[in-house]
Structures
1.
Amino acid sequence: MTDPQTASLIHARGLTKRFGDFTAVDAVDFDVAPAEAFGFLGPNGAGKTSTMRMIGGVSPVTEGTLTVRGLDPRTHGPEIRARLGVVPQQDTLDTELTVRENLVLYGRYFGLSRAECNKRADELLDFAQLTERQNDEVEPLSGGMKRRLTIARSLINQPDLLLLDEPTTGLDPQARHLLWDRLYRLKQRGVTLVLTTHYMDEAEQLCDRLVVMDKAKIVAEGSPRQLIDRYSTREVAELRFAPDVHEHLDGQLDGLADRVERLADRVLLYADDGEAVAVAAHERGLKPEAVLVRRSTLEDVFLRLTGRSLIE
Amino acid sequence: MAGISRVLEHRLVQYRRTFRSSVFTSFLSPLLFLTAMGLGLGGYVDRSGTAALGGLTYLEFLAPGLLAATVMQSAAFEATFPIIGGLNWQRTFHAMYATPLSPRDIALGNLVWMAIRVAMIATVFTAIIVLFGAAHSPLVILGIPVAVLTGMSFAAPISAFSATQRTPNQFNVIFRFGITPLFLFSGTFFPIETLPSYLQPIAWLSPLWHGVDLTRGIVLGTLADRPVQMLIHVIVLAVIVTVSSWATIVTIERRLVKG
């Protein structure tokens, strides 16, 4: 029999974090296996960052069990951090120093020799596509470049576990895709990725498995595909009505689809055949201003589980 | 120790970028003060004889006190903005805390850096005292370690306070109601015995007065006349530095754990 605490890289049971009377993380259970990409999906304030900070050994566990590689962060914080890569939500780069200086100094924090730091910095600059900017100060770099540098920096100690707290929040789509590509390469090299996000597309792109968090609790767990199959239909028809029509839709949509969600600005009809539902709505005499039929996403899963949107 | 030296290395790399302007400033300040107060005002004071200052010229009297007062100001500056920046603006201390470095390494690394900065400023200042011919004896060199002790008796408690702040708003209060009055009333420019007797106990509470009196005693070689008093100065300053270094570790750790 294998002990779950050693088989999984991260093992949490009843993990709780309280700040005074406020419970940020409420008795959550999860396991992360080596080489897997594991995500925490949820809105701001769901407890994702608090969970990540406990895993990272920088925020004490209030209650419950947490082990990282079988070690307890309460007693082995520095040992855990020595083999961990951390990409925090807010950049912590020294913006007055150069790109290369940031990498080398960070390597020195891990006790690496200066020669080794410089050698690794060369490789990481190439990986992060920042070689040409290596002698520039960090301050004028774009948000995407700073994030790439932060990721490069987190790899200087060659960790096999990388914690990414909202890695692409605030970036433009092009920068996000470039970053996802880099993270995907790391995953292929066997690096375990643990990330938080409130973007469902990010979770779908990167995560093998994820948990949905809401109000300090885990409300669902599975692969993106499993979660969609379990909590949503194959397709969704989105109908957008004129505001005065939208307010008086009561009852007119009943029975059209497996499930109906009325949002402030549109109506979501969940069915395996979205096109057929849109046609049926027309036949009832409903005249939406716009119709969009699409596949279900994790956004729909979240809406189903919590009754709210991920990004409000 | 290894962790402290890594934090120190970061500060050194940072300092390399501002090295030139910083050296210029550390020359300029003593130069201006010793010229204006020591030569200008001093020339005036010395006309009425040197008996009031125990046979010293005003410049000789002023120089060690001004050394202590100057390092106090530099130390206070080093203990405010760089600390709040590392915790709240650049957040470089959080980056360090994500590695095997501990809050203790981060706190002590920064305090050691402040001591090095104070030593650098004190060395430049002492060189200028010598150039001005205001050195009473070769003992002037001992002013440097005493200045480091005095500077740290400000750097350490102010660092502990800075780590509790998220904005620099309170720093003005420290400078305006703390540093500036101490600069003026701790025996730097005139012996505190000149103050009304009811104000003198206030000067005793000032770490700067202990620093000024100690620096003067050592640099002017009058130490042997008042050994007990000198020992008390050293103890007071050393206790302040020790207790508030520990407080800095605590406040920095609290702030880092909060995120």
2.
Amino acid sequence: MTKPDRAQTTDPPATEHQVYEPIGDTPGCYIRETADGGQPPLDYPPYKSTALRHPKQPLVFLPQAVTELTGPQLGPARITGELDHDLTRQHAGEPVGERITVTGRVLDTEGKPLRNTLVEIWQANAAGRYRHKWDRWPAPLDPNFSGAGRCVTDDDGRYRFVTIKPGPYPWGNHYNAWRPAHIHFSLLGRAFAQRLVTQMYFPGDPLFPFDPIFNSVRDANARKRMVSRFSMIDSEPDWALAFEWDIYLRGPGPTPFEDVP
Amino acid sequence: MTYCTTPSQTVGPYFAIGMPWPDGPYAIPKDAPGAITLSGYVYDGAGRVVRDNMIEVWGADGEGHFADLWGVGGGSSVTDFRGFARCAEEDGDGRFEIVTLKPAAITLPDGVVLAPHLDANVFARGMLKHVVTRIYFGDEAAANAGDPILAQVPPDRRDTLIARATDDGYELDIRLQGPGETVFFAL
């Protein structure tokens, strides 16, 4: 069995430079915002696994036609039970950890809500351990936590999950590398061109400056769009803290190419 | 007001916790009339198989209709045709296999004819966002020759998008980088 991303040595670094240091933000990043939506590059050397997994040939422009403007309409059909959205009630007992709610809206870039669209999530447990054969770091599994959930947005484009706050965890990208706590999100949207897989982070995480995956998004404002907001007003007394995160998928029509001088 | 999109982040590792569906690889049941199997391996820039890949495929039915309300000429009427397949293996041998219908050519309202094709998303650990490619069919040479998208692809790279016919379907490998690199699209 191989353990991808854990292949690097855990020996102490010979020099400070082996420790990840975030590079400066891209100058003029607000221009890039409008051009590429602040998306990360496929080739990002600080995240070592990108090295052999990014295309080197130029992408060919694909104008959106019928195949790209249509998409799978299978939201409700993917829901298998009433508790799919509640990761704290999928086992006999409750998982250990901070119970939280994660809510928000799925919108397009024109601000229109996407109704009845599938939202799928997966995450580590409160100790930062994934229920996965490749995750072998010495943190406990939780017999009451699988870490997967799904729901369908309502008429306002709103989704809601109940879960526990995932912990940070180490990985093998570089010496003493740790991922900030995050929840993986997958969205189908309404059209093939709207497909998005991303990660939601928690506000104020001290690991942000040290994580090459988070910092692969080179624009500081774009990074903020991956960070949820703590909501006191939505937190439920004697029950759960609330985090809110809106997700913006591409609107109709193509994203303009970067032609700004 | 226009909002900015939420940035993409990598799918893995550990996407096998949330992404696989029991019926994921089947855009249509395997025993349905006209069902084809589409398979291949995913390779990295060192020529090694990518054992943790997720491939999604979306396409029309044999009449050129999509399992969606918005396609040209209305939605597909084929029973149990989902149009969408997801093969999400994180500990496999790098091979994907999906079952769908072979789509028909589509004539757009402006008269442009699209050769039979599927759109595909490729995800993996180490990919900060997914890449988009297309799958055309080797036994559709005439249609492929007139396809407006293939025409945009450098001629010596077109075969990276064209699946070979096999006994029960089609085969096409996906090479993320290096010799024979698959053509990926900016969508």
